[in-house]
């Protein structure tokens, strides 16, 4: 029998392990870049510069970050109740419909009324799309992984039907809705900064980022500072014990999925209300799925989720920059690099756990021994 | 001494001007989601760009978009990198190019498959797909032994209906008794890349008696050609010359010369004679035509060739006007 793995200290689990995973992924990517005949250090430099330095780079990075914060929070909320919500994609998609329907209905109202309602609409429809699988899990025992995946397909089909039929802009070749009324437009950051006299590059980066930061804080308060958050975590740790302690488990599951879907739905505030001002087919572009990797890497903690979102945002933006800079690095190559990082920080997240834990344990022991000796 | 100094100065000025000019011309192209090797639309553009680079030695900056937000970003990045002409590929880039061309009046822009924008620095290419489809419709009607021919479209949009409508008109002009079966693969962009469904639709048209099937369906068309070849029937290719994909079973291909549009854009921008506005390329402009090569020479009889050439001449001279579905959302043969 192998020796039991000593527990990993909290700081190592939260910081050291993700960093090691990232380094391992970057190392493998470096080898691949080397294999196709480019300089990996130079490539890394281009990525970092593209993501943070050049004019507009940071704006794009934060724009992608906003999406990942919302979908990452959606997955993390469900994780705390040990529910694996794979449906962020569909919930975000439906959130767009909610935002658009409210925006169209409130076209007459000033922004101060229309905008909050449109945001609420996004969260509400996203929540509805989370509640149904939640109900099926809680009351009917249908596994949440299966139902949420299925609900992604249903959401996609509904949106296809709407965008090629009832909601299609007349005379338009692409499947997209008519533009939303101006009253429900979330101002872009370059518009906000221009208003106070600071000129920054025009990018899709918009006010929904502030909403994402607010959502991170709300998430922290909800999970660790409220009775409901306690119930969610209790259900996640041990449903039987939670039930014995008087927590209504099915009800908690349904509410958790509502909140989870609501977070996912808020992605629409960035994509629909902030950037495109209309619904475009497939606008969710896989952000819902990447949210799973974000939550895993961020250890379901708001700070971790923010950092992981920033990382993925930088990868998306810096990756595009790689494609610009090197003719030999194609978009498929960029996808591969992103996939490596997801693989190491998501699927193989705990691969380095046993050796790292043993190493730390040994170091601590020898230090203690040295102190005694 | 004085003369030679002037000569040197002139030489220096001229070479400096040449260098400055050479530095100034920086072309860029933004391929869309299909990617530049999609064996269809984007690849046609790529071929035009390749030809331009081979002839002039000028490298063209390129980018393939992977999500919606990148279209505009890529165009802006190209401008920031000093591009003097930016070519957009496909109607999905229309909104992006409209915004970027408005914000950068000093840069030339060009886009393919768009004709509804209005910017002073933007050239737009539209093709008269109905005219090329008319020609292959004649070929289909004359090659059919069963008296039934088929059409398989990709995504159900006005553009593809224009293909179908031109085809129907061509078929009926050659033989009014020939029936035309028509199917669209779907209503979403996924319909451009679903060869299995393309094969299924083709098989069902063959079961209903069709023996020549024309496809305008992007990657889905590969399945159409495959299914027709498997059943020993004839298919008609689209966009690029697809005669080689199943020699002996591809009657002909309707050529949409996006490569010409791409090549012409770069060439004109380089020579400084970049005229903006809308260019409608039809048979008269060599923008659309039909393919005849060693792979289908045995399938096209002299009689068919003569009929197609005659119709092409009549379209060129204006004697035949092929109705464009997009002009009034209806087709006279329906």
Automatic annotation (TrEMBL), chain A:
Membrane topology listed for this record: Multi-pass membrane protein
A GO MF term: transmembrane transporter activity
GO cellular component: plasma membrane
Domain of life: Bacteria
Residues passing through the membrane, by range: 15-36, 43-62, 68-85, 92-109, 115-132, 144-164, 205-224, 253-273, 279-296, 303-320, 332-352
Keywords attached to this entry: Cell membrane, Membrane, Transmembrane, Transmembrane helix
Subcellular location, record wording: Cell membrane
InterPro entries hit by this protein: ABC_transp_permease
CDD domains: TM_PBP1_transp_TpRbsC_like
Subcellular location, principal: membrane
Xref: Pfam families: BPD_transp_2
UniProt protein name: Beta-methylgalactoside transporter inner membrane component
Organism: Roseovarius aestuarii
TrEMBL record, chain B:
Domain of life where this protein originates: Bacteria
Keyword Membrane belongs to the record: yes
CDD domains membership: PBP1_PrnA-like
Localization per record: Cell membrane
Keywords from the named record: Cell membrane, Lipoprotein, Membrane, Signal
CC per GO annotation: plasma membrane
Keyword Lyase included in the entry's annotation: no
Segments traversing the membrane: none
Membrane topology type: Lipid-anchor
Domain called ABC transporter substrate-binding protein PnrA-like: residue spans: 31-322
Family per similarity comment: Belongs to the BMP lipoprotein family.
PANTHER family for the chain: ABC TRANSPORTER GUANOSINE-BINDING PROTEIN NUPN, TRANSCRIPTIONAL ACTIVATOR PROTEIN MED
Name of the protein in its database record: Membrane lipoprotein TmpC
Species annotation: Roseovarius aestuarii
